[in-house]
Design brief:
alpha+beta; single chain; 2 domains; four-stranded antiparallel β-sheet; 153 residues
Length: 153
């Protein structure tokens, strides 16, 4: 819900953030169909692959939406804090033992622009029900030097 109404928003993020389109719904619980309507309209208007990566909240990431985006030559990035999802549980168990699995990548470093230490574990070839392409899963931890703030996603 935003601006006292329910719907989906398509925003382009970059040097300049642009609001590209909105699909309003009449009630809560209709966000998935609204998202697909919005995406179909956007691909029709702007063409296949007009966006490299679509960021989706896991609540709105279903096989139909993911397949729609992939069929239009774009990638999907799904952000979630939902630890009960099978794909997340499977990945987390691999990440905990990353030293014993060659196929799990582990990276640590420091981003001097953001003054942030980071740790990333990631692995590919995870299946998502109803999606033909396999997915990469990553767990990212950040720690900001100045503020002490920690992010875990």
């Amino acid at each position: 819900m935003f601006g006292n109404f329910y719907g989906s928003v398509l925003q382009s993020l970059g040097e300049v953030n642009l609001l590209l389109d909105i699909e309003e719904t009449t009630t809560k619980g209709k966000e998935l169909p609204a998202t697909r309507t919005l995406l179909n309209r956007a691909f029709s208007e702007y063409g296949k692959g007009f966006v490299d990566i679509f960021l989706l909240d896991a609540l709105y990431a279903d096989q139909h939406t993911i397949n729609l985006i992939l069929a239009n030559n774009s990638h999907v990035l799904i952000k979630t804090n939902e630890g009960r999802l099978t794909i997340i549980q499977d990945a987390d168990s691999l990440f905990r033992g990353w030293k014993t699995h060659d196929y799990v990548k582990h990276i640590t470093g420091f981003d001097s622009n953001r003054l942030c230490e980071y740790e990333i574990c990631y692995c590919d070839s995870f299946s998502f029900p109803g999606v033909d392409k396999t997915m990469n899963v990553a767990h990212i931890k950040e720690s900001y030097v100045k503020t002490g703030k920690r992010e875990d996603f």
